[in-house]
Write a structure and sequence with these properties.
361 residues; alpha+beta; Nucleotidyltransferase, domain 5; 60s Ribosomal Protein L30, Chain: A; 9 helices
């Protein structure tokens, strides 16, 4: 699941919208109980809905829910699973992080906890360049999840790909083939655009020398590339691909974090950085946040003052007006206002009380 997915889910509300989440398992024998748990949760959700609606009203939703549950491939489950269903929409996502077992019925689907979990992880895109086919993956550490929407996976159907090249006297076959390859990789670049627009993550690119050369020539997204691997990786599994690309992306991300931290220190000398959660909240709320730095395991509750603008300490974490994790709320605020968030290892922001915001002005 990525921000592109979340935006789609968030736009598909309407009461009743059902969210089912549960932890799952990657390997046997633990994953043998997962189908039973899903079935039980589906039954419980149906029973809850029937307390409020009659069976006829719920028929479209129940049909979608049962088909969605039947379509789960337990050979590909990861650490968590989420099902979203209402009468007009359904989607399922295999998650590389665990989630609690729960059923939520509301006007909108439950995405908040998933967004917060994603904000804390080193995430990236992987593009495997090929004719048969080019594939897009979302990376979470060394786990890859294939994207199967927005045109991906993409097959080169034209001449030089699935079709034979034209022959005949005077035909420059190699030039014709090369131009067709350029056209194909331009279409790949265009298909990639909405994913990077919604979720501008680092990009790892793999492929043979010829395809990488065409890609670099025609792509408008080379600024996102953090790792490039030369070779034929068409027959590798997702797990194998993750093992070869993740170390490269991880090193590039660590180097970028160190570079950004150094630049932040310079901005601090120019009075362009605020620290402490309260100050970060105030500036982020005003839309002044350019780049937020936060330690990966920093969580803190808070509550708003009577104006709704200032964040105060939460003396009683269980009070009804308390924000359970104001750090994650601040992260979302910065992202929603067009800023960037960089999570760093614990201890790297000790001088800033674990959180710092570079200001736009």
């Amino acid at each position: 699941m990525n921000r592109h997915d979340i935006l789609t889910v968030q736009q598909a509300g309407g009461y009743p919208s059902l969210t089912i989440t549960l932890p799952t398992h990657r390997t046997r024998p633990d994953n043998q109980q997962d189908p039973i748990r899903v079935k039980n949760l589906v039954t419980q959700a149906q029973e809850q809905l029937l307390q409020e609606f009659n069976k006829r009203e719920l028929a479209p939703l129940f049909e979608r829910l049962e088909k969605l549950a039947d379509a789960i491939d337990y050979e590909y489950t990861l650490d968590g699973l989420v099902l979203y269903v209402n009468k007009d929409f359904d989607a399922k996502f295999y998650l590389p992080f665990t989630v609690p077992e729960r059923i939520v019925i509301g006007e909108n689907f439950l995405t908040r906890d998933l967004v917060f979990a994603m904000n804390r992880m080193r995430r990236y895109w992987v593009l495997l360049l090929s004719e048969q086919p080019t594939r897009l993956f979302e990376g979470f550490h060394d786990t890859l999840v294939e994207v199967t929407e927005g045109g991906f996976p993409m097959i080169h159907e034209g001449p030089g790909g699935a079709q034979a090249l034209p022959g005949g006297y005077g035909k420059k076959v190699s030039a014709h083939r090369d131009e067709r390859h350029r056209q194909f990789f331009r279409s790949v670049d265009e298909a990639l655009k909405p994913f990077l627009a919604d979720d501008p993550l680092p990009l790892g690119v793999l492929g043979v020398d010829r395809y990488l050369a065409f890609w670099e020539e025609v792509s408008t997204h080379n600024r996102f590339v953090r790792a490039t691997l030369l070779g034929n990786y068409d027959h590798m599994t997702r797990h194998e691909l993750g093992e070869v690309i993740w170390p490269q992306v991880q090193q590039a991300q660590i180097e970028r974090e160190e570079r950004e931290l150094g630049e932040m220190a310079q901005m601090a000398n120019q009075q362009r950085v605020v620290s402490t959660l309260g100050e970060v909240w105030r500036s982020a709320n005003l839309g002044r946040g350019k780049t937020l730095f936060v330690e990966r395991d920093y969580h803190e509750p808070g509550r708003l003052d009577e104006t709704g603008l200032l964040l105060l300490p939460a003396d009683d974490p269980n009070a009804p007006d308390v924000i359970p994790d104001a750090v994650d709320e601040a992260i979302e605020m910065v992202l929603n206002k067009g800023g960037e968030v960089i999570c760093v290892d614990n201890g790297q922001l000790e001088a800033y009380q674990r959180i710092a915001l570079v200001l736009r002005y």
